[in-house]
Amino acid sequence: MSALTLNMKLAVPGTNIEAYAQSIKAIPMLTVEQERELGKCLRNDNDLESARVLVMSHLRFVMHIAHSYRGYGLPQSDLIQEGNIGLMKAVKRFDPNVGVRLVSFAVHWIRAEIHEYILRNWRIVKVATTKSQRKLFFNLRGAKKRIGWFNYAEILRVAEDLGVSAKDVREMETRLSTHDLAFDAPSDTDEESDIICPAGYLEDNRYNPAEIAEVDDWIAFGHGRLYDAIGKLDLRSQDILKQRWLSEDKSTLQQLAVIYKVSAERIRQIENNAMKKLKKSISLA
Questions:
Q1: Could you tell me the CA-to-CA distances from 172 to 40, 87, 140, 159 in Å, in that order?
Q2: 52, 8 contact by CB (below 8 A)
Q3: What angle do CA 107, 101, 49 make, to 5 degrees?
Q4: Residues 6+ apart with CB under 8 A from 12
Q5: CA 133 – CA 122 distance, rounded (Å)
Q6: Cα separation of 16 and 20, whole Å?
Q7: How far is 225 from 221, CA to CA, in rounded Å?
Q8: What backbone torsions phi and psi does residue 205 show, to the nearest 5 degrees?
Q9: Among 19, 22, 24, which Cα is nearest to 7's?
Q10: How would you write the pLDDT of the chain (285 residues) with one tens digit per residue?
Q11: For residue 4, what are the contacts with CB-CB under 8 A and spacing of at least 6?
């Protein structure tokens, strides 16, 4: 196995985090001059070998940042890998001429990728979508000084410190205090616990044969009553209703007025009278 392949495998941490940590610590750190020269080669000549060296020499820094997010209950190896993606994005955008070390520039990109991963995977339902909610999600737990709910003074203080509204603080505190509920109950629970889970009380009757047959029968019954009531009207009223309401190419009052050689207002009156007779006939059926 070549040294290049071996080194690139280190960018993907496995299940043995301790062995991974020891491996990346063996990679030498870069001096300011080395980092600047590698950055220039990458930026000016698109030298991928320079990019590889810049990434590999900063893997220990990614692991240090990922370790600070271990309290979210997500696999440490996944957090490190997402942070490594952020490091690669930072290396791609790194400008050595600005005079800032890569480690200072990359911290934003590393944290951004880890934040996105946590928000996608911390809960089944995403708990933070707006900018204020994202800010609260990563700061609220650190802002809580005691176990339990915030009082009003604490809510105002947190809102002022983070530059968000008190309403956002209360809403995020509620979201952080809830838990995902499985659709199906665990196999070892009793029947009473099954009712609590959504599978115990949510039903989809859209494709129930009995429901479908009942709906179809009711629609057919309604159509039959409607056409029976229309059949009791005079022929002119029937035609006007069909032309105005039942035809795909509906006629206007003016078009019917020309056909029957009356005014449009007269057609409207006939239509209204026919509608009243229909309603009365259907209600008595």
A1: 44, 30, 8, 11
A2: yes
A3: 90
A4: 81, 84
A5: 14
A6: 6
A7: 6
A8: -95, 10
A9: 24
A10: 333 333 545 555 666 788 888 889 999 999 999 999 999 999 999 999 999 999 999 999 999 999 988 877 788 899 999 999 999 999 999 999 898 999 999 999 999 899 888 888 876 666 666 777 777 777 676 555 454 667 778 778 777 877 888 888 777 777 666 666 666 666 665 555 555 676 666 777 777 888 888 888 989 988 888 888 999 999 999 999 999 998 888 999 999 999 999 999 999 999 999 999 999 888 876
A11: 52
- Go through 87-108 and write b for each residue having 16 or more CB atoms within 10 A of its CB, e for each that does not: bbbbbeebebeeeeebbebbbe
Tokens of 7: 């080194």
Tokens 């080395």 belong to residue: 34
Torsional sign, CA 187, 192, 198, 200: positive
Amino acid at 227: Y
| Inter-CA distances, 126 with 66, 86, 228, Å | 21, 21, 54
pTM over 0.85: no
* Type of residue found at 47: D
